[in-house]
Design brief:
- The chain is of the alpha+beta class.
- The chain is built from 26 helices and 26 strands.
- A five-stranded antiparallel sheet has the order 6-5-9-8-7, sandwiched between helices. A five-stranded antiparallel sheet has the order 11-10-14-13-12, sandwiched between helices. The protein has a five-stranded antiparallel sheet with strand order 16-15-19-18-17, with helices on both faces.
- It is elongated, with a radius of gyration of 47 Å.
- 30% of the residues are buried.
- The structure holds adenosine-5'-diphosphate.
- Adenosine-5'-diphosphate binds next to helix 23 and helix 26.
Length: 755
């Protein structure tokens, strides 16, 4: 479907092209490009029909019938060979149509599409209208161009369908072309030597002005009311070449624009220089409640209610386009809403496409009956009288503003506006009164429940009665749901943020509590262990074996308790984000020699396990906090050793893009999938096996500490494991040391390097 806008653009571009004064071939090509764009087809071919023998059968057919050929389902059986060729090239539909100028087909334009059923009646109509305009433009232009160099063009001109004379300075006819002779049904002999005045209403003054190149208008003598425009060019001192454009040729146009008669909502009008319609398309009575004769012969714009505005619009449009909506008097003071597109017509003055606007009329009907459509609309629609009192509201208005219909009707519309927007309504009304409609007003409206405002995109339209007097206004409020939702989302977000802040504060309090408690516990444990050791060493007298055994348990348990406290402290600090990493470049190859790690290696080899520390050749220095990373290694290796009885422990360090990847691989008992998922939770321990009982149970905090440290470094951590076969704990760390954003520590902790 070709919409109005596309059609208007096409016509507009056509006039734009005309202004560029292109050569006919070039003009056609550009026009072809326009068509390709507007109709979105793959290919447009244009052909100027100047060499008769190069015409293909389908072109000839189009040229002879002057009608478009449409094939919307090209196939191997299409009627012309050329169409079969197009099918073979992959096209599915085509339209081939003539450009007619002065009754002659001067060119053929082909549109080819890879889509089936591309060219419907609308496309064909639009193309026909635009090529008619194009044809007239070309006719006008070529005659002008030709008259610049008369001698050269003479013969061609004399074959033209446009009637032409060669006359001398007094107006005596030297030569007349065939068209002229046909026009007068006279032979050459009957015309030559006579004065042009015998055939046309031309006087001496007009002749003089023609000599100066001024275009004049004339009528034919004794042949009814046939009008002509004449233009002249001087061949030499004595001879004047005169061309006649028959403006009554409009009938021809009318013939060709018969296609318009299919349209129920668009009609066309051509006006003379004074704005009086001289041609009206046949379907006018379908579009307007007016007969053709009611339009012909009286100034068109005068019939419009907004005539002053339309007049100044036309005056300002130059040779472009002017579109507006207006109301036309269709008699008895009844006005009909129409949409008008005016464009300059070089030969005749002004053309206009008239479209009836169902929307405009629908709005107008609202005035009479607030119909179902409005009632059902999702927009809040309010009808107020000229003084601003509510007359009608629809269901949506009740829903959006939360009032019942009877609470609103009769009351001032101002109650629906927030206090700060009170001046918006009177301003909108006074504008709507002048302009008809104003839209896109952002209004903060107010509902019955006096809470947050209701954001609306508003349009206000003034409504007039049959006599053109103000009857009231229609206010259409579209609730800006998205904005509203956004506000709501914003509120939820703020709530959540407050919640997070609260939780953070709580968590900080908890950390602080753990921190304090742990500190308080450390001292007595140190004392217990200290005094236990004194007793155990028998510094204050001997003990029997049983007593020593008990004291040993006290010492061991206080060690375990101390470890636990230290780990709890570490976890609390790490997860509160108070730990600040001390990053520095570290060579991981050398890290394997660190005493803490070496100690673990010894435990492993002591247990009969193989131990290897492998660093890829391309792993250079990495920016890490060495103490913390050693803590990670010690933790992972300790676990590996703890849960492996046979085989090996391998530490592999490789470079993976911008990260290093560390794997601690063992051939131990492995971890089930179920447990792998929960492994990094605080205090989580895999269901204890005999083995772990023997090894002494840990705290279940080690891996969560490890993970916190890796995260702090901006890295990731994971595990691959199979029960019975072994586990690989891996983590990555950015080489550049880009660590995770962390809070500034609020206190410099003295224990930051504990463990
Ligand atoms: P713990 O201090 O108890 O070792 P971790 O957080 O370091 O705490 O480990 C949690 C649990 O994960 C351990 O109790 C153990 O069951 C399991 N685990 C850790 N490393 C390994 C491993 N290399 N092989 C098998 N199980 C492991």
């Amino acid at each position: 479907m070709l919409d109005n806008a596309a059609m208007t653009k096409l016509i507009f571009d056509l006039f734009d092209l005309e202004r560029k004064k292109l050569e006919t071939g070039e003009l056609l090509n550009r026009f072809g490009e326009e068509l390709r764009f507007i109709f979105a087809v793959e290919k447009v071919e244009t052909k100027v029909l100047d060499k008769p023998n190069s015409v293909t059968p389908v072109e000839e057919f189009t040229a002879n019938t002057m009608k478009p050929v449409i094939d919307n389902r090209l196939s191997a059986y299409s009627s012309f060979k050329e169409l079969v060729d197009y099918f073979n090239m992959g096209y599915k539909s085509c339209i081939i149509f003539p450009v007619v100028s002065n009754g002659k087909v001067i060119s053929i334009i082909k549109l080819l599409s890879k889509q089936e059923e591309k060219f419907d009646k609308d496309v064909s109509n639009a193309l026909t209208i635009s090529t008619i305009i194009l044809g007239y433009q070309i006719a006008g232009r070529t005659e002008q161009e030709k008259s610049v160099n008369v001698a050269k063009y003479f013969d061609a001109a004399f074959n033209s369908i446009v009637p032409q004379f060669l006359i001398d300075a007094n107006g005596a006819i030297i030569k007349a072309n065939k068209s002229m002779l046909i026009l007068f049904s006279a032979s050459s002999r009957e015309v030559i030597g006579k004065n042009v005045k015998d055939f046309f209403q031309i006087d001496a003054n007009m002749l003089a002005s023609l000599k100066r190149g001024i275009i004049a208008e004339t009528r034919i003598v004794d042949k009814g009311d046939r009008r002509f425009k004449i233009s002249s060019s001087q061949v030499n001192e004595k001879i004047l070449h005169i061309t006649f454009y028959e403006t009554t040729e409009m009938r021809d146009l009318e013939e060709k624009t018969k296609i318009l008669s299919y349209s129920n909502y668009e009609a066309m009008l051509m006006m003379d220089a004074k704005g009086t319609p001289i041609w009206v398309s046949d379907n006018i009575d379908k579009v307007l409640k007016l007969q053709k004769n009611a339009l012909l012969g009286r100034p068109f714009v005068e019939m419009l209610l907004e005539k002053e505005r339309i007049k100044s619009g036309i005056a300002a449009m130059g040779d472009g386009i002017y579109a507006d909506s207006a109301r036309i008097n269709v008699g008895n003071g009844v006005f009909q809403d129409i949409r008008l597109t005016f464009f300059a017509n070089q030969m005749y003055g002004l053309s206009c496409i008239i479209a009836n606007s169902p929307y405009e009329s629908a709005y107008r009907n609202i005035e009479k009956n607030f119909d179902e459509l409005v009632k059902l609309s999702a927009d809040a629609i309010i009808f107020i009288d000229p003084l601003g009192y509510i007359q009608r509201v629809n269901k949506s208005a009740e829903n959006i503003f939360g009032y019942r219909e009877d609470e609103l009707i009769g009351g001032p519309a101002a109650i629906l506006y927030t206090d700060e927007e009170q001046d918006k309504l009177p301003r909108a009304l006074s504008l709507a009164k002048q302009e008809g409609t104003i839209s896109n007003i952002f209004a903060k409206m107010k509902g019955k429940k006096d809470e947050a405002f209701i954001p609306c995109d508003q349009s206000v339209r003034s409504v007039k009665d049959q006599n053109g007097n103000l009857a009231g206004y229609i206010i259409v409020n579209r609730e800006l749901k998205t904005k509203y939702d956004l506000d709501e989302a914003q509120e939820i977000l703020e709530d959540k943020e407050r919640e997070i802040e609260k939780l953070q504060a709580e968590s900080e309090l908890k950390s602080q509590f753990i921190f304090n408690i742990s500190h308080d516990i450390k001292t007595p444990i140190t004392n217990i262990k200290g005094f236990g050791t004194i007793l155990y060493n028998e510094e204050h007298g001997p003990m029997n074996e049983e007593q020593k055994g008990y004291i040993k348990i006290v010492i061991d348990e206080s060690d375990r308790l101390m470890d636990l406290i230290k780990q709890i402290l570490d976890v609390a600090r790490l997860s509160s984000g108070k730990v600040k990493l001390e990053l520095q470049p570290v060579d991981l190859k050398k890290l394997g020699d660190n005493p803490s790690i070496k100690a673990q290696e010894e435990v492993a080899t002591g247990k009969g396990l193989m131990f290897s520390w492998n660093v890829d050749y391309n792993v250079g220095e990495v920016n890490i906090d060495p103490n913390r990373i050693i803590q990670v290694f010690v933790n992972l290796i300790t676990n590996a050793v703890k849960f492996t009885e046979h085989g090996s422990i391998m530490v592999n360090i490789t470079k993976k893009g911008k990260n290093i990847r560390v794997e601690v691989k063992d051939t131990g008992i492995g971890i089930s999938k179920e447990d792998q998922r929960k492994l990094f939770r605080k205090f989580y321990q895999v269901h204890r096996t005999e083995l772990t009982v023997q090894q002494g149970s840990g705290t279940g905090l080690g891996l969560s500490i490890v993970k916190e440290i890796v995260n702090l470094h901006g890295g990731r951590m994971g595990i691959n494991s199979e029960l019975g076969k072994g586990s690989t704990f891996w983590f990555t760390i950015p080489i550049s040391g880009k660590k995770k954003k962390q809070k500034e520590p609020k206190e410099a902790s003295s224990d930051s390097k504990s463990q």
